[in-house]
Design goal:
The protein is mainly α. It is 82% helix and 0% strand. The chain has 21 helices and no strands. Helix 15 packs across helix 17. The longest helix has 60 residues. The chain starts with a helix and ends with a helix.
Length: 564
């Protein structure tokens, strides 16, 4: 594959990945916002707590498989060799995926069995534990369905992203999330919005998504390796292959041991450990801790969830396209540098250029949104969630300041991805272990004394410190990705644009409905920002525009993408 062809494929992969994640996460946030508004911070807290338990359990069930798919699947699908010419795996693509999928199912079945024992059997045997478990006991069947569906969804999603076939992921997500919203509308019209129904509909949508994605993955993999007349094989064959691998894992435990000791799985387990520690730097442990301190129906949980939901949407609406796909693309660039005889060993010029381009993109797109959200946070919370959540305003604004500093000055998650793709996953694990432990210790005191605001400070600052540590190491091994002049220019333009929009709306349209104030404010803020980008001829902004045009016009030669 030529450099320009790879650049076009990578650009389209990023774009489709971004569209898929925006739709997926956007519709999910609509669902969460309606549930929060309908139930209020106190009644919605058990649903927030359920999700805070469900997502880490789903992550535990991956046991490194997702990282392997993102890092190695592109290589296995091409030549199956690493930079030294050694086989990454002796298995063909179909069997490689089948074995990984079977292992993923085995781990998930173990996690589901533990959930059944702890949340269903234990309250029956020891009734005194029922009070501590709370509503999770009644929701346990849905949790088990979710874990099974999420295991299959996650596997197929990361496999398709690893192959840069994100369009199929988008279609499946659109269908399943749309049905989730239809279920929400039915609940609204029948006045049956409650935690139990919300969890039931969510679990069903995840299971449907899993079926659609696995069908697409099977079709694509077969078409890659077989003659056209053999592509439409019956679904029974891959199912039998999975059952055969499952039997080998279940009845020969040593097979799991040897599988885990393979180079690709050792890599995957290390990155999985880093992901687990990164989740400690996320909101789920904070919600669990607040539940322990303040009870299952604490308003602090509701306030924190709303602030984090808006904060994450602010980040993801611009950067979701980089998630997942960037690992595969960075890995391919490292593979290219390592196999180029003209490049000295331990040097990664292609990766260094891509890092600078990605960080420049992040700064251009995220800072204007952060400044706009900071200015209009109270209006947004009142419009979407209602006056019961107005306490979330200060939490959100502090989070936006820390997020902007992390993305613009440090680089956010670019560095952890860079270090992982050059084989420094164990180093990342050590960094995340230290900052994750620090976060848990500090948050104990911060949450106890300051509630949701303390949780945000502890977690966001610990995550910022972890990113700083990783950026220092990535800079020494790969090269700096920070452009001070570009960051200062974008920060100034974004601040001026948001301030202009805020004061003009406040002056001219204070009597307008909140929706129209936000609509006109966003138009003024974004429009003035784009105008200033053009007036000052910001090259980084021009690069973002060129990539957008390249996605819409695939035939165009994306020289800027080929040589970032």
């Amino acid at each position: 594959m030529s450099t320009s062809e790879f650049a076009r494929q990578a650009t389209r992969g990023f774009a489709w990945n971004h569209i898929y994640r925006i739709v997926d996460y956007g519709l999910w946030n609509v669902f969460m916002a309606v549930i929060a508004r309908q139930l209020g911070p106190t009644v919605a807290a058990p649903f927030v707590y359920y999700m805070a338990i469900a997502m880490p359990l789903a992550l535990i069930g991956t046991l490194g498989v997702d990282g392997v798919l993102l890092r190695f699947l592109a290589r296995v699908s091409h030549d199956g060799r690493d930079s030294d010419g050694k086989d990454l795996t002796a298995l063909p693509l179909e069997q490689f995926l089948t074995r990984l999928f079977s292992f993923r199912l085995v781990v998930t079945l173990i996690v589901v069995a533990l959930v059944f024992v702890l949340l269903v059997l234990m309250p029956m045997i020891i009734p005194s534990t029922a009070a501590a478990i709370g509503s999770l006991g009644a929701l346990a069947p849905f949790l088990m369905v979710f874990l099974a569906g999420q295991a299959m969804t996650s596997f197929a999603t990361f496999a398709l992203i690893g192959l840069l076939r994100v369009q199929e992921v988008f279609v499946a997500s659109l269908i399943s999330r749309s049905l989730l919203i239809i279920g929400l509308v039915i609940m609204l019209f029948t006045h049956s919005v409650d935690v139990w129904n919300a969890v039931a509909i969510h679990s069903a949508s995840v299971l449907l998504n899993a079926v659609l994605l696995l069908y697409s993955l099977n079709r694509i993999v077969r078409s890659m390796r077989q003659a056209p007349e053999q592509e439409r094989r019956k679904l029974i064959k891959p199912i039998l292959e999975v059952l055969r691998e499952l039997r080998a894992f279940v009845f020969k435990p040593t097979a799991i041991k040897f599988f885990l000791l393979t180079p690709v799985m050792l890599y995957g387990i290390t990155t999985w450990g880093s992901d687990l520690l990164s989740s400690v730097l996320g909101r789920q442990p904070d919600i669990v801790m607040m539940r322990i301190f303040f009870g299952e129906h604490s308003k602090e949980i509701g306030y924190y969830q709303v602030a984090c939901q808006v904060l994450l949407m602010t980040e993801y609406i611009c950067l979701f396209g980089l998630s997942g796909a960037i690992v595969s693309v960075f890995s391919s660039l490292v593979h290219k540098d390592e196999n180029d005889p003209s490049i000295a060993k331990g040097k990664y010029p292609s990766l260094a250029r891509a890092r600078r381009e990605v960080m420049s993109f992040q700064v251009v797109v995220i800072l204007p949104l952060c400044t706009f959200m900071f200015a209009f946070a109270p209006r947004l919370i009142l419009l979407v969630f209602g006056k019961e959540y107005i306490e979330s305003e200060s939490i959100l604004r502090w989070g936006l300041l820390i997020l902007a500093a992390n993305i613009a000055l440090v680089g956010g998650g670019v560095h952890i991805t860079s270090l992982v793709t050059i084989g420094k996953e164990r180093m990342v694990f050590r960094y995340r272990l230290f900052w994750g432990a620090t976060n848990l210790i500090v948050n104990y005191f911060l949450i106890l004394h300051y509630g949701a605001l303390g949780a945000l400070f502890g977690t966001q600052l610990a995550n910022l410190a972890a990113c700083v540590t990783e950026s220092i190491k990535a800079r020494s091994l790969i090269g700096s990705a920070f452009d001070a002049r570009n960051t200062l220019a974008v920060a100034s333009i974004a601040t001026v644009s948001a301030a202009f929009a805020y004061y003009l709306i406040d002056l001219l349209t204070p009597s307008l409905a909140l929706f129209w104030q936000l609509a006109f404010g966003s138009i003024l803020s974004i429009g003035s920002c784009l105008l200033l980008y053009y007036v000052f001829r910001l090259r980084s902004a021009r690069g973002v525009f060129d990539r957008g045009v390249g996605f819409l016009s695939p035939a165009r030669n994306l020289t800027t993408a080929a040589n970032p």
